[in-house]
Design a protein that fits this description.
Blueprint lengths: L1 E2 L2 E2 L7 H29 L12 E8 L7 H18 L9 H16 L3 H25 L7 H19 L17 E3 L9 E10 L22 H6 L5 E4 L6 H9 L3 E4 L5 H16 L5 H16 L1 H4 L3 E5 L2 H13 L3 E7 L4 H12 L8 E4 L3 H10 L4 E4 L4 H4 L7 E4 H4 L1
Parallel strand pairs: 6-7, 8-9, 8-11, 9-10, 11-12
Antiparallel strand pairs: 1-2, 3-5, 4-5
Helix pairs in contact: 2-3, 2-4, 2-5, 3-4, 4-5, 8-11, 11-12
C-alpha cells in the first residue's frame, strides 16, 4: 500500500472480503468461474483434453473452523445471537439473562472438568429454559417490529437455529454443531488419533495422468494406467462386484445387491488362504481356470514361507488398523507360524470381534490371541506394558506407543510395506 513516499506492508485485502466475495458469487458463480479456469487452461496448453478422460475420485473431510461442540456453549451462543438479532429489529426484551448466562456457562465448564455430571445436567437444563423463554418472547413481539426485511430475515434464521440447539438430544441425527455453519457434520473415518471430525464431506476428482512418476529413461510420457470413464460407466452392467471391505463397505454392498448385482464380500486378500479364496471367486465368476503362472507363484510363496519359519515362528505381534485388513493380516501371520497377540481396530464392532475369535480358534497359533474392537493406540500402549510383543504392524502413528514400553517392539510400517 502506497502512502505518499512511504511503503507500508499490508495484506492485499481483509480476510473477511474473501468470504463476502464467495457469498456474492454463489454456487452458480463459482461453477462458472471453475469452468472458465478449465477452458483457459486448455486454450493456453497447460492441460490436454485427453487428460479429462481419466480421473480418480476420492472422499475426504473438509474440517470447519469451529469450536468443539458442547451443549452449554452452543446454548449460550444461541442466547447471545437471539438477543442481538432482536435488538437489531427493535424488539425490547423483558430480560436478556446476560449475567446468568455467563455464569451458567462457566459453571458447566467446571462441572464437566470435575465430572460432576448431575450438576452439569442441571445447569444445561436451566440454559435450555432460558433460551426457550427468549425464543417465545421474541416470536410474540415480532409482529410489531420494524419493516426492515433484512433484519427480520436474520432474526428468523437465528430463531430457527436456536430452536434446533434447544431441542436436539444426544443421539439425534442432523444435529447442529455450529450456529454460524449449520452444514457441519460429525464424521467418523476410523482414524486412531482423530476418531471424529467436524466438517463437510468433499468429493475430490483429480487427473492422475500428469502427476504420477514415470521411469527416467530419457523418454517423456504420461502415466498410461488408471480406469477410464467408459469403464466406470460399464461397471453398472457388470456381472458381479467384489468388495474387499466387509465391515467398512457394508452399506455399499447392500446398495449394489438391491440393484440386482451379485456381491462377493471378502476381507483383505493376504496370505495363501485369502488369495486362494479371491482367485477361486474370480474363476467362478468368469468361468475360466486359474492361470498356471499364478499356481507356480503360489508354490513359490509357500516355499518362501517355509524358509522363513526359523525367523518368524513363535514371534508375538501387535497389529492395528482397518477391521478387514486386520482379518487378512492376522490370518497371514498365523500361516507363517507367528502369533497376533493383540489385534486392535477402532472402527471394528462386535461382529468383527466374533469373526476374529473364530479365526483364532482355527489355528493353534491363535491360542492366547485377542481382538479389541473400539480401541485406540492409547489402549495398545497399556497392553504393551502388561503383555509386550516382538513386533508391531500398523501405520506410523504407532511409533508413539512403543517408545515408552519396557520391552519396545520393532514397528513394521504398513504404510510403506504394503
Amino acid at each position: 500500500m502506497q502512502a505518499s513516499n512511504t511503503s507500508i506492508p499490508a495484506p492485499p485485502c481483509d480476510a473477511t472480503q474473501i468470504g463476502r466475495y464467495r457469498a456474492t458469487l454463489g454456487e452458480a458463480g463459482l461453477q462458472e468461474l471453475l469452468s472458465a479456469t478449465i477452458h483457459t487452461a486448455v486454450d493456453v496448453g497447460a492441460i490436454k483434453k485427453s487428460e479429462f478422460q481419466r480421473v480418480i475420485v476420492d472422499t475426504t473431510v473438509q474440517e470447519k473452523a469451529i469450536a468443539h461442540p458442547v451443549d452449554s456453549r452452543l446454548l449460550e451462543m444461541a442466547r447471545r445471537k437471539v438477543v442481538a438479532a432482536a435488538k437489531r429489529c427493535g424488539i425490547v426484551l423483558k430480560q436478556t439473562f446476560a449475567a446468568e448466562g455467563k455464569t451458567l456457562q462457566r459453571q458447566a465448564g467446571g462441572y464437566a472438568h470435575a465430572k460432576q455430571f448431575k450438576r452439569l445436567r442441571r445447569v444445561v437444563k436451566r440454559q435450555r429454559t432460558i433460551l426457550g423463554i427468549l425464543i417465545r418472547e421474541t416470536k410474540r413481539k415480532m409482529s410489531a417490529t420494524t419493516d426492515n426485511a433484512l433484519a427480520l430475515t436474520s432474526l428468523n434464521t437465528w430463531l430457527e437455529r436456536a430452536e434446533r440447539v434447544r431441542t436436539q438430544q444426544r443421539h439425534d441425527k442432523n444435529k447442529l454443531y455450529a450456529l454460524h455453519a449449520p452444514e457441519v457434520e460429525c464424521i467418523g473415518k476410523g482414524k486412531a488419533r482423530k476418531p471424529y471430525e467436524f466438517g463437510v464431506k468433499v468429493n475430490v476428482l483429480c487427473d492422475p495422468s500428469g502427476s504420477w512418476s514415470t521411469p527416467t529413461d530419457g523418454e517423456f510420457r504420461m502415466y498410461a494406467g488408471g480406469t477410464t470413464k467408459e469403464e466406470v460407466i460399464a461397471g453398472l452392467h457388470a456381472k458381479a462386484t467384489i468388495v474387499f471391505q466387509e465391515y467398512c463397505c457394508e452399506k455399499t454392498s447392500k446398495f449394489i445387491a438391491e440393484h440386482g448385482q451379485e456381491v462377493v464380500v471378502l476381507n483383505a486378500p493376504m496370505g495363501v488362504a485369502g488369495t486362494d479364496k479371491f482367485l477361486m471367486e474370480i474363476s467362478r465368476l468368469t468361468g475360466k481356470p486359474i492361470p498356471a503362472q499364478l499356481e507356480k507363484e503360489r508354490g513359490e510363496l509357500v516355499d518362501a514361507m517355509a524358509d522363513s519359519q526359523a525367523h518368524l515362528h513363535g514371534k508375538r505381534y501387535a497389529i492395528y488398523g482397518d477391521p478387514d485388513q486386520m482379518i487378512g493380516t492376522a490370518a497371514f501371520l498365523m500361516e507363517l507360524g507367528a502369533e497376533p497377540s493383540h489385534v486392535l481396530s477402532t472402527n471394528g464392532g462386535k461382529e468383527w470381534e466374533i469373526k476374529m475369535n473364530e479365526l483364532f480358534a482355527s489355528s493353534p497359533y491363535g491360542a492366547g490371541c485377542k481382538a479389541y474392537p473400539k480401541r485406540d493406540l492409547w489402549h495398545l500402549r497399556s497392553l504393551l506394558f502388561t503383555e509386550p510383543v516382538d513386533f508391531m504392524i500398523g501405520n506410523t502413528y504407532g511409533k508413539c506407543s512403543d517408545q515408552s514400553s519396557p520391552c519396545s517392539p520393532d514397528l513394521v510400517n504398513r504404510d510403506k510395506n504394503e
